[in-house]
Design brief:
The protein has one helix at about 30-35; strands at about 1-10, 10-20, 25-30. The protein is mostly beta strands and about 55 residues long. It has one domain (about 1-53). It has a three-stranded antiparallel β-sheet. β2 (about 10-20) and β3 form a beta hairpin. The longest helix is centred in the middle third of the chain and has 6 residues, at about 30-35.
Amino acid sequence: MRQGKVFYKEYLAGLLTETDDGEYVFQYDAMYVKDHVNEFITFTMPVSPKTLY
């Protein structure tokens, strides 16, 4: 499993994880969800506390 931090501008937006099966999941950082609800990474990834697959 590998992980990488994803930044939007100078803010930590979340973590992108490659699972052992080769799948990718993204989890927005809790503080980013709280403070930057309208600053999503892409239109298909709205800011949410849920894990995105």
